[in-house]
Structures are given as C-alpha cells and as structure tokens.
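Task: sequence in, structure out. Protein: Ribonucleoside-diphosphate reductase.
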Amino acid sequence: MSLKDQKDINYFRLNNEINIPSKDGKIRLEKDQEALEAFLKENVIPNTIKFDSLKDRFDYLTKNKYVETEFLNKYPFSFVEKIYQYLQEQDFHFKSFMAAYKFYAQYAMKTNDGNQYLENYIDRVAMNALYLADGNQELAMELADELIHQRFQPATPTFLNAGKKRRGELISCFLIQTTDDMDSIGRTINSALQLSKIGGGVGINLSNLRAAGDPIKHIQGAASGVMPVMKLLEDSFSYSNQLGQRQGAGVVYLSVFHPDIVDFMSVKQENADEKIRVNTLSLGITVPDKFYELAKNDQQMALFSPYDVEKEYGVPFSYVDITKEYDNMVKNPNIRKKYMKARDLETEIGKLQQESGYPYIMNIDTANRENPVDGKIVMSNLCSEIMQVQTPSIINDLQQYDQLGTDISCNLGSTNVVNLMKSPDFGKSVDAMVRALTFVTDSSKINVVPSIRRGNDLSHSIGVGAMGLHSYFALNHMYYGSPESVEFTGVYFMLLNYWTLVASNKIAKERGESFHNFAKSKYADGSYFDKYTSKDWGPQSDKIKEQFKDVFIPTTADWKKLKQSVQEYGLYHQNRMAVAPNGSTAYIGDATASLTPIVSRIEERQEAKIGTIFYPAPYLSNDTLKYYQSAYDIDMRKEIDIFAEAQKHVDQSLSMTMFMRSTIPEGMYEWKDGRSEKMSTRDLTILRNYAHYKGIKSIYYVRTFTDNNDTIGANQCESCVI
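Result:
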C-alpha cells in the first residue's frame, strides 16, 4: 500500500468524532489520541522506508540526490550517529493528530513518486540541526536539543528545506519597492516573478508611483496610476506559482496620502468591476500620524502628487516625512493635490475591512519613531511583521542598476513560549536560535534580485518571534488580556530582546563585524538602552515572579554592562526580532498560533482533498477549559494590550490579526450601548485608533465571524501560515 492508495482509513473518522459530544456533553478529547495512534499505525509506519542502519539510510539519500552531501561532509559520521542517539533518547511523541498529520503531509521528505516517507520527525530535526550548525558540533547538539524539545521552531521554508538536495529557499518572504519610472516598474515585475518562483511572499511598495492624471515627460498625456501596475503584479504572481505547487502570494502597499488611495482600495470591494478587481493580491496602506490627527479633528486631508513631491524634495514620495512636512506641502503651489474628508477615508477603510479583511494597516510614523537604526522604513511584508530600512535603486534603460539600493529578505524562527519557559537555560536557548538564523542569513544568496542580496549582505537581519502565548496563559490560569497576562508578555519579550542582543553582540565580537551603518545607530550611541538602564523591567506581581523564579532576570546593572559591550563590539544583526503568524509550525509544536488568542476550543481546519480536521486547543482539559476563550469573544483592546506590551521590546513588528463578530456580543464594547449590535465601521475605527495610541506598528487581517458561521479575512501567507 502507498500514500496514494489509502483504503479503510480510520484516523479521519476518529478525528471527526471529536466534534460529536459524549452523552454527558463533554468534548471527546480521547478521540484525538485515538486518531493519532491510528494515523501512525495505518499511514506512517507501513509507508515509511526502512533501512538496516543509519549509514545505509544516508548512503541511499545522498546517492539518490535527496540530501545534500556538502553539509554532511562537515561532520564525521560518528557525530551524526551521536546526534541521532541523543534525539532518540529524548523519546519524542506527537501530542495531537493534527501535529502528526501536518508534519507528514507537508514537511516529511517523500520519495520522488510521493508514495513513501523517507523521514520522521527526528530525521527532520537532525537535518535542521546539522545543516544550520554548518559543521559546528557543539551548536548542532544545542540545536538538536532546542528542536526536539520544541523550544525553537524555524519558519516553514527553513524547517521544510534544510538539508534537501532539491529544495526551495530557506527565506520566508521578500520586500521590494519601485520608483517612479518605467524601468523600475519593469524591474519590479521581473523581481516579483523571480522571487515568487523561488518561494515566499513578496511585499511591494507602490507609493512612489505617480498618480493617475500626473504628467509623463516628453509625452502629451497622463499617467494611469497604480491600478494597472497592480493588475500586472497579480498576473505575475498567478503565473509564477512554483509549477502549481503553491499560489504566488504578494501584497502591495500604498500611502494613505497617495491620490490613488480610494481607487487602490476599491479593487477589493465586493461590487468591484472585474476590469479593476484584484482577487489574490493583498493590500496594505501606510498611515502617518497626520492622518489620525486630521480624522480626529474632522478635517479635510490633502492627497499629494508623488511626482510633484519628488521634484520638490529630491527623494521618492515614501521618503518624505508627511506628518512633519504636511503643512509645507499644502502651502506649496508646485505640488498638486486633491482633497477629501479624512473621516470619509477612515470610513472607507472600515468598510473594506468588513468586506474583505483588508487593508493591512502600517503605522509608518510609529515604526520609524521606534526604529533604532539609521534609515527610513517605508513598507512591510505579506504578514505585516517585517519592518526594516530600505534605500531606493535607480534603474537605467538596460534594466541595470545605476544605483543599487537595499531591499529585504526575511528569515524567521519562533520560540514556543510554553516550552522555552521550561528551558534549563533561557539565554543559552536563545543563543542557539540566533546562531541558527544567522546561518540562514549568511548563506542566503538571492542573486536574481541584486537589491535583495545587497540588503541582506549589509544587514544580516533575522526575526526571532514566539508562538503558544495563549497556551501558556491557559496552563497558568490566566485569562487572555488580564493584567497578569500583559505583565508576563512584557517580561518574556524583554528577555527575548536581552538575549538576542547578547547573542548578536557575541557574534559581532567573534567575527569583528557589525551590521552596515552600526555607528549611526541608537545602539552605538547608547540611547537605545536608556529605557532599560533607568527602569526595572522584571516581574512585579507575585504570580509573575513565581513563573520566572527559575529564569535569570537582567537588572539595570546587567543592561548597563550589555550597553557597554554593544558600544565596544557592536551588533552583527541590524534587526533581531519579529513575530509572524506561524500557523502551520504552531500545529506541529502543539502551540497556539503566534500571540493571538485561539479562534475555537475545537478548531475546524479545512484541508485540501481531505475535508475538515478538528484540532483541540493545545493542553485543552477541564483544568484549562475556561481560560480558552475564543478570540471572537474577547474585547480586541485586550489583544492590542498584549501585542503593545510585546512591541515595547521588539525592534520590528508583530503580525496582529483582529477578530470581530458581525454581531457584537452584548456588553463587549461600551460604546455600543444603545446602538445596533451589528459591527460597524465605527467599531473598527475606534479599535484602529486605540492600536495606534498603544504603539502598535501594524494590523494584519481583520477577520470577521459572520452570523452564518462564515469567516471573512482568511490568511494567504503560505510561508508563515500553511
């Protein structure tokens, strides 16, 4: 029997019985374990190729070009045997049917015909540890320890591809920008094709493009604006889909002050004309503080011609501080502008978020105000958590670079909060994770888009994040968004920040190298550390002190010592932290996704060709049941409070999805009293403004659970969420 010829399958039937309450009305959690056992017995064991020895296995894999030989040759085979022995001694077992099913369906290496498995979870862990350690035996053992105990989970592209001979890139996503000329637009479309081909979502900044009606040099006519470029990009992603294995995924960002902003958002409206409708491309808008001010005061807002702004300021539109220059730009007669009421645009944003979940919101001034490195952040990525500085490129008529700018590639990994809190050495665990991700950035050579490669070579950026926060709260009897849960989140991310800084500083010292323009950063002048050297960020309440009783908490003296070391030796990584949605890898790690609350105690997951799979929340039991409230039943201000507390310590951003019901539960939001219980654009406006006030850098999807049990605003970023 092969994987393509499965008959008499019991595990799906047993899994579906989870959703059928027992006679006493209880959730039949035992059915999940029965489904897991049946899956391993009926699917995994009979369809896994057996080898007489580990040596025979690797000889087969290398001879048949399943596995690279280069990284294996960096170790004596006796060490490979040693790491396997250690991993087997840890007695790893999947905790849920979904975890095992996800791993074997999407991560386990299979034979070329797809009929048999060539590896189990231990094999994939060993491949990641050996590959990411790059010949360093001590680091390989440390990574094996972190991975098998699921304290660290590399992002999907890394975990899936590490060590394979025929593989995609280890990178999660890419960010590129276009400038206001046809050569740059053409290069951007080509870059989108190339990056989509090799995997990962692609973010593209269109704010610099001249608006519809702006003049075109040497031609009697006017520009068509950003809309046609969006259609070209959507077609590019549809075409470049890795031979049909995955849908090309992209997001385009536009400034809220761009004259095409209303048309830009209209492409996602339910009644949009098919000529302009964009079906698969995601939308994001960059929102300066000035927009919130104008909307609050119910004022008109000016939408500025990017073409004229660039002529006046000598830099692309995205690189002008609109909040600072707004009044000057309004007064400048050389800058064409049109006007609309800020609140009308605010309402349009809310309407579209209700209909489609879009647009993502990027609070651009918040991102730049909190940015510790030299340069300007102008956009984000497909999941809204990557925020790094970029510089524009200048393309000539030969599609070559007259000036090579810097763009962004992201390599990510997540800590599992529940498991990392059990680590015998929190700092040592984080050090191993940082070094693993450092190998990914060091080995990344995206030559097809030179600006991506240059940005990576100069910045060495990584993104350490987290998953399983709601799991941790439930296990420790904390309601999501309660004061103690907010306090825990702050301490946890303070520790991640501290230890990623320590690790980056050590690597800079070892290599004698810091990221580009380190000397111009707030790290170099020491100002970044002021908030840590002037205040104790450790736990304050007795409950949170108890949870961190076995974890080292840095004092202000420790921060001062770290500050001195960073100023002396530098940091290797320009960026260190970012929190992705990590849905897929969270299933494997039996963790709740990212920092968000669960959607349901028993999640219904639609799997292609299979149907519905039911997934009980991790660690669900009578003991944790009441602490697992659905995100749709939680005041979103509580979620914002959690994310805002983490954001204080994260140099990039956090992918924050907001969850709403089309009919708001009674008493959830005080401003609904006496009004319709139906969700309105006003509700979303209040929450967006609250998020901005709390220092949130970005809002990902707005997911709405409708009265007919449908969900609007589904995830499309396969690299982070599969």
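The chain has three domains: 150-168+411-594, 173-408, 595-721.
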